[in-house]
Amino acid sequence: MNRIDQRTNRALRPVKIEPNVNPYAEGSAMCSFGNTRVLCTASLEKRVPPFLEGSGKGWVTAEYAMLPRATHTRTSRSHHKKGRAREISRLIGRSLRASVDLGRLDGYTANIDCDVMVADGGTRTASISGAYVALALALKSLGLEPDLQLAAISVGKVDGEILVDLCYEEDSKAEVDANLVLAPGGELVEVQATAEQGLYTPEELITMISLGAQAAREIFAAQNAAIKG
């Protein structure tokens, strides 16, 4: 199909991950998928939640938020703190915990903050992909590195066709909207796939996962380049 920005169905928007954009955070990255831009920071604290005290483990948690004018019209800050932001925050935290052996973080909490500067679709996937880099850079300060690289990509079904990395206009009319969190070998950390209009088949889900895994290779390369500096 003719996509808005003339990409092929399998092509990502331009991906850019700029490391160390915040001089105060132990790790930080600005992650851009096309016009979507997310500032990701990782802050280390020498403490753990009460339920982990004495366990010999650390913790990774995340908060996701959007700036008021990240979207076409201004939205109040209080609105962004509601259900959607909490759900995405939990997704980011779950995903990043899969990338680290929490036993190696003994006594530390990594607080991940993902702030959407500009939203043009794929904000949660850009958040996860950028937050991985921020976390990896923060772990460096402890002499550690992630145990598992991961990235996230959106895939959807629009006008009957499977598209990778949907922009806002494509996402708003998608029959199916999927978000994948993957490892470099194509293994899955999480799959969110929702039929917005109509249904989708198991075969279509397999196609979405396959195309998403192929496209994610470009994100993994951008992450590696950012971490190496």
Automatic annotation (TrEMBL):
Top enzyme category: transferase
EC number: 2.7.7.56
GO BP term, example: rRNA catabolic process
PROSITE patterns assigned: RIBONUCLEASE_PH
Recorded GO MF terms: 3'-5'-RNA exonuclease activity; tRNA binding; tRNA nucleotidyltransferase activity
Reaction catalysis annotation: tRNA(n+1) + phosphate = tRNA(n) + a ribonucleoside 5'-diphosphate
Transmembrane segments: none
Keyword terms of this UniProt record: Nucleotidyltransferase, RNA-binding, rRNA processing, Transferase, tRNA processing, tRNA-binding
Exoribonuclease phosphorolytic domain span: 12-138, 151-214
Positions that bind phosphate: R84, G122, T123, R124
Annotated function: Phosphorolytic 3'-5' exoribonuclease that plays an important role in tRNA 3'-end maturation. Removes nucleotide residues following the 3'-CCA terminus of tRNAs; can also add nucleotides to the ends of RNA molecules by using nucleoside diphosphates as substrates, but this may not be physiologically important. Probably plays a role in initiation of 16S rRNA degradation (leading to ribosome degradation) during starvation.
Similarity remark: Belongs to the RNase PH family.
Subunit-structure text: Homohexameric ring arranged as a trimer of dimers.
UniProt cross-references to NCBIfam families, sorted A to Z: RNasePH
Record-given protein name: Ribonuclease PH
Organism expressing this protein natively: Dethiosulfatarculus sandiegensis
Gene: rph
